[in-house]
Structure formats: structure tokens, C-alpha cells
Amino acid sequence: MSANMIKRMAWVHKWTSLICTIFLLMLCLTGLPLIFHDEIDDALNPSHWVPAHPDGAMLELDRILEIALQHRPDDVPIFMSFDTDRPVVNVTTGARPDVAATAMHFASFDRTSGDLVPPPDNGAAIMDFLLQIHTDLFLGLPGMLFLGAMGLIFLAAILSGILLYAPFMRKLDFGTVRASRSPRLKWLDYHNLLGVMTAAWVLVVGGTGVINTLAIPIIDFWKHTELADLIEPHGAPPSPVALHSLDDAMAKAKAAVSDMVLQFVAFPGASFSTDHHYAIYFHGKTPLTRQMTIPALIDARDGRFAGLRPMPWYVKTLALSQPLHFGDYGGLPLKIIWAVLDLITIIVLGSGLYLWLGKGGQRMDPAMEPLWQGPE
Description:
With 376 residues, this protein is α+β, with helices and mostly antiparallel strands. The chain folds into three domains: 3-28 and 136-212 and 329-373; 46-119, no CATH class; 227-311, Nuclear Transport Factor 2, Chain: A. 52% of the residues lie in helices and 12% in strands. A hairpin with a 5-residue loop joins strand 1 and strand 2. Helix 1 (3-35) packs antiparallel against helix 4 (124-136). The longest helix has 33 residues, at 3-35. The radius of gyration is 25 Å and the shape is elongated.
């Protein structure tokens, strides 16, 4: 690499890093507890709840939905999900099917009695607050797209840093840390070494983070392209009281995908559905196929089975990127690795700020000349 190219890469690395570092520090700090979201929830909220009738019959889903709407008479149903380890049905409602996530109401119901299941007492509000900051800065789609732009700039900073490491180290052994020199030079070496060591992980997490910020446009594009034959205007969407039996729709969906596991239901008008269908989602049983969902679409007006709509590649990419971003594929050991790498990334970002703020008007340290001289 020529000296001029090295200088250009150094300029790119400097300014892309400065633009995004504060936001990336925020994402790393909020992302660290979110890696252990499930473990923190379990620790702060040990489950003492038991169903009213442990050996009793399960209420029909239509009855659970009716009870949920009695609690929220001005709302419409948006999502319904199911706990895997207890007879609990979770119902999300809102004033409209397309309300923002912050305006949705979430409630859990005992399927053996229809009683409300008490929400977690501790920690949930804090974790939800951190997740909202990490996702969209409480700004909705504009916030998501802004963080996506910061993610792209961060990827440019990482790639330029990788290209700079080889010419910088050409007069030094790989991994050299000149601890006996000035603190600034020592931290420069740590910054470079830790940065190149974590580069692959940062590219994965940064890339999946950028993909996740495009979730709303991706789902909207899927709805209006892959599902175009189902969402052509053909009458007003059904009102909640006019919905076809959910239990009947569920039976038809399960018959079509008998070898998969039920995940959740998206009601008409909600994201992940159309204006006229129940979208009943199923996933596979293995760690990988658990992220590969497929919806069975049932007409919510007359119960007609509309067919299966396998996710296109870009929606599958989104589905795979979300758990990968937080290290949710390999249980607690992988989460610990993710947390360690997150902490190292915080050190890299913090040391980069220190190097920039500490430079002031000083001339370049002679010990840093390998970066600027180019290859001999």
C-alpha cells in the first residue's frame, strides 16, 4: 500500500471513528446487559406463579382473546404468543393494529382459568428501557435508520483500521505493545491490537445490527411484494368482533405444518401479517431452524386456508441476524464470549477517544511513523 493510500485510509478511519464512536459506545454499554436479558429476568423475577388448575383443561384461544379484549375494550388484538414452559398465552393489543411498539399493551393469561398472570415485579422496566435505547433511541423508525447509518460508518471505520494495521506493524512484531513508552503510545498499541483481534466479531455484530435496523422496511417490502396476491384490496379489514374463530384457524394451520413448532400469531393489520389474514407462525425444532419461521395464512373473515408463504431470503437474513446479534445461538457460554468481546470493543472505542482527545496540537510521535511512511 502506497504512502498516499495509507494517509487516505488513516483519514477515513479517523473521521468515521469520530462520527460514530459515541453512539457505538452507547450501543455497547446498553447491549452488554441485553446479552443476558433472559438470565437477568430470571434472576430478578424468580417464577413463583402456578396455574390455577395445573391438571385442568385448557381454555380455547377464542375465549382467551375475548377475555383479553374485555380488559382492553378499546383495543384491537395485534399479536398472540405462547410460553413454552407453562400454560400461559400472551396477548398484545393496541388502539390500532399499526401502533408503535411503545403504544402497545402486553398482558399474559393463565390458559387454565383465563386469569391475568402477574407481570415481572423487578428489572423488566429497566431492560425494556435499555432495549428501546439500543433499538431506536425512542425515535421509532427514524431512530432505527439513524443507528443503522452509524453502524455502516462504524463498519467503514473497522475495515479501514484493518487495512492500516499491516503497514503500521511493518517495523514491529505482531501484537507488540510498547508499554515502556508514553501512555499515549502504549494505548495506541492496545487500541490497534485489540481492534484487529476483535475485528471479525465486530464485523458480524455490526453487520447484523445494521440489518436489524432495517426490520420495518424489510417486513413492509415483504408484505407488499411476496404477499401481494393476498393484500390486493378486497373490502375493508374485518373488525375484531367479526374475526373468524382463531381456534379453527389454528387447527388448519397446524394441519399444514405438523412437523413444526407454534411460535406466535399476527392478527389482521399487524406487522408480519396482512389486513385480512391471521398469520400463524411456526419454526423448526433445531437451534438453526428455530430461527427459520414460516407463516400459515388463514383468511380472518371466513377461515379459508390461504396457503403457506415461506420467508424470502432477505426476511430469513433478518430472522437469523437478530439472535446472532446478541449471541443467542449457543446458550450461556456463547453469551459470555459475546460479553467479553463487547467489553474489549468498549476498550477499543474508549482508547480511540483518548488518543484523539489527548493529541491536541501535538506533532505526530516519531514512534508512530511506520503508519505514515508506507512500505519500503
